[in-house]
Automatic annotation (TrEMBL):
It holds the Pfam family 2TM. It comes from Chryseobacterium defluvii. The chain crosses the membrane at residues 7-24, 30-51, 72-94, 114-132, 370-390, 396-419. Residues 358-432 form the 2TM domain. This is Sensor histidine kinase YesM. Keywords: Kinase, Membrane, Transferase, Transmembrane, Transmembrane helix. The keyword Transferase applies. Residues 159-237 form the Signal transduction histidine kinase internal region domain.
């Protein structure tokens, strides 16, 4: 037992013992006060510690966040059984052992049934408070943990995305300077044109590199300009064919993806006038395809692998659709997903977090409503029993509200923890999981 809990139960024992000693004890003596304090402490510590122990054991084996339905059912069953045993034990010690008001036979004959039943309701009230508090604390911890995890995921995704985009500047500049250095020796006049065109292209790189997505139309215009530079160097050795559907122009792809793939085509294949390299850019089934005839050149050194790997990773951060690669003896093709709308790395995570929070908030309201109903039942029904027994003991009408409300309470509990919307949500999740596995 925690120190804080011990002192709370001690103060409850002192308070209840003073109340009963001052208002219900005829002979005010130290002996009677100590007996009252002993009896109050017995009730407080046994009922409080017993229910607290049950709650702690269930928290360890069946946390609210992992097994809500099972935990609720076990809580209800365990508190009913344990409180029934503890109340009968405390009442037996009180009336038979300490006060000596009844014999064992009289105690179990039914004379003290009302007192036992009343004390069981009080114990259930205490248990309901303890378990409701435990649930709220667990939910608070889980919500905080989920929020922190979502923030970390969003920050990690953004950091990764920025790292990938920052690879593009030096990569493009390095390859362009390589082309330029080749042209300076081969054709100085063409090198001057290439330098002017490269400045325009690099401006586009600087403008688009901070964007997550660009339109297919913008990317095609940039790719065509870049292809003119490549034609300046390779002349008739390279041919470019563009055949993209107009309805795809307003859709989206990751920026500089075409430029990186065009570079890969030139880098990994040889091109001559007799055997030109033919590069096709076309749309097919919501994908933007880049295909070239396969004329593999021998690599003097191992490729850094920035181009295609960069595109694949950037798409993985923005959509679940994959980049597909097809390779045969005759051609090499890369299929880039064409996206209908602009996703956002942060907003995607935030929306998921908000949806989870709203769902959790709704769940809390349902469970809180049930516990409020249970607590009200434990308070009102004993009060009605007392009124009934004081006003008309021969006409026991309290059974009707007790049974009616009890049935309603049981139905409420089943709808919240067993067969209500929670059951529907589980079935929906099961069906979706099965569909995803196909």
């Amino acid at each position: 037992m925690k120190r804080k809990s011990f002192f709370i139960l001690l103060w409850i024992s002192l308070g209840t013992s003073l109340f009963f000693f001052l208002f219900f004890t005829d002979e005010k003596s130290m002996r009677n006060f100590m007996i009252t304090l002993l009896i109050s402490s017995m009730y407080s510590f046994l009922l409080g510690a017993g229910n607290g122990l049950i709650n702690e054991v269930l928290n360890k084996k069946f946390p609210w966040s992992e097994a809500t339905t099972k935990r609720a059912i076990l809580s209800i069953v365990s508190i009913l059984i344990i409180n029934f045993i503890l109340v009968y034990f405390c009442n037996y010690m009180n009336f038979v052992v300490f006060q000596g008001n009844a014999t064992t036979a009289e105690f179990f004959s039914g004379k003290y049934n009302f007192i036992n039943w009343f004390m069981i309701n009080i114990a259930l009230l205490i248990s309901a408070f303890l378990h409701a508090k435990s649930f709220m604390e667990e939910l608070k911890k889980t919500s905080k943990k989920e929020v922190v995890e979502q923030k970390l995921i969003a920050k990690s995704a953004n950091a990764q995305f920025e790292t990938l985009k920052n690879q593009l500047d030096p990569h493009f500049l390095f390859n362009s300077l390589n082309v330029l250095s080749s042209l300076i020796d081969e054709n100085p006049r063409q090198a001057q044109k290439f330098t002017a065109s490269m400045s325009k292209i690099y401006r586009y790189v600087l403008e688009q590199k901070d964007k997550e997505l660009v339109t297919v139309e913008d990317e095609l215009e940039f790719a065509k300009t870049y292809c003119e530079l490549l034609k300046t160097r390779f002349e008739d050795s390279v041919d470019f064919i563009f055949d993209v559907k107009k309805e795809d122009f307003r859709r989206y792809v990751v920026p500089l993806s075409l430029q990186l793939l065009l570079e890969n085509c030139i880098k990994h294949n040889f091109a001559t006038s007799s055997k030109p390299l033919v590069i096709k850019v076309f749309s097919e089934n919501d994908t933007l395809c880049i295909e070239n005839n396969l004329q593999v050149r021998e690599q003097m050194k191992e490729s850094a692998g920035i181009g295609l790997a960069n595109i694949v990773q950037r798409y993985s951060l923005l959509t679940r659709r994959n980049v597909f690669i097809e390779k045969s003896e005759d051609y090499f093709k890369v299929k880039l997903p064409i996206l209908l709308e602009k996703p956002n790395v942060i907003n995607t995570k935030t929306d998921t977090s908000d949806a989870s929070y709203k769902k959790a908030q709704k769940r809390v309201k349902e469970i809180k409503s049930f516990y409020s109903n249970l607590i009200s039942y434990c308070i009102v029904i004993p009060f009605l029993v007392i009124i009934n027994l004081l006003t008309s003991p021969k006409n026991l009408w309290f059974y009707f509200p007790m049974l009616g409300w009890g049935i309603g309470l049981a139905a409420h509990g089943m709808s919240v923890f067993a067969i209500g919307k929670n059951w529907e949500d589980k079935k929906i999740r099961e069906i979706l999981e099965k569909e995803n596995k196909r």
